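We read letters as residues; the integers encode the fold. Take this protein.
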Amino acid sequence: MSSLSRRRFLEDSMFAAATAVAASYVPVARGDDTQSKSPNEKIGIACIGVHNQGRGHIKAYASRKDTEVLYICDVDEKVGREQVKAAAEIQGREPKYVQDLRQVFDDKSVDAISTATPNHWHSLVAIWAMQAGKDVYVEKPVSHNVSEGRRMVEASRKYDRICQTGTQSRSMQGSIDAIDYIRSGKIGKVSLARGLCYKRRESIGPKGDYPIPAGINYDLWSGPAPLKPLTRPKLHYDWHWQWDYGNGDLGNQGIHQMDVARWGLGVNELSKAVQSYGGRLGYEDAGETANTQTITHDFGDRTLIFEVRGLPTPSLRGAKVGVIFEGSDGYIVMTSYHSGAAFDLAGKKITAFEGEGDHHGNFIKAVRSRKRDDLNADILEGHLSSALCHTGNISYRLGGRERLKEVAAQVAGNAAAAETFERFTEHLKANDIDLDKTEVAYGKPLKFDPQAEKFINDSQADAMLTRQYRAPFIVPPAGQV
């Protein structure tokens, strides 16, 4: 049993011991700049899914004095063993390598897991870990569908586990200051936030039947998803653009900006209505998700418009991957995870926001304090922002094909929507797409009940709030986590 696990046992039976531990830890606002220097205070971490983003997880924990990476888990043996060596070079001790994540959950020395698997695994990894008594850092989007996210929140509350979402802007001082600036009313009333994911995405290659790379347990890789042939040339990363595993750029890069937009608008529930349009334009490949997409969320007195552009495009007000908040007295443009600026209505710069943070450190802070309120991105925040991506994609996927002129007529009655569509078509024209011949998916307008987290009188859309799971990789239904 690790020192932290042992301490948790003592906390259950000895209140005085818990008080002493709390007194020894000095919290730092908005982050975690303090680390325990005692070797007996080390938190045991297992990193699950380390091909891409997971490497940053390893570095974050292996570099600390008060955490140790005990396990590296990845279905790709070559990648996993490489990262065992990388972790050892940083922390001086080799973690164990396992291919099956279930082996990690049985080890009582593991206090927390940090996961960066493909999206279709995020929820089940987190839920199984919390059921095993582990705290969890889970990458964005926290879920592959809306229902999964709510089950993660239920698990965190039921098992009293700390669960951090990997939307690191929540720990960046520049973003924190910008949101505080909005909340203070310094740009007036903010009724519109515009999220931007203008990120070039090349074709992923033709659809086909490709061999599974050596050293990969493809059954485990597929997990909750259907066990299908590999239809894209590259197994890793390009799963983002196929619906069984990913959520398109809306749920890849875009979830970061969706989260900041919702945070700045101050909405703590899902939208009352959603509609999306777009397509996979400019090339034909093995991808299924949109590379050009617009999503509009209606919160009643506030609106969130999100734009995905995977073809070359200029910035909007200086931002390509960022968020624009429109206020009655000015506006704010966030141009990165941690920087941006406020402007008056004439476009004169008023003030700048800049400053990074330590999101993994914030997670460790909350693991030590056992206070969910210490988290900058609790799982509930991750669920809500991820679900906005999912409901947008549901509208898109249920849409019929329409010519651009027909879409223009549909959005003409709303000034913000019309202006967005005008730039949408200009973008396509600039990429040599024939506006007269091109059809896009014009998403189904959907009404939503934010409290029930169900669509209103639409069983077709409700069916897409979850998925069919492949045994034994089943995310529990409501009330059964």
Summary: The two ends are 25 Å apart (CA to CA). The chain has 15 helices and 18 strands.
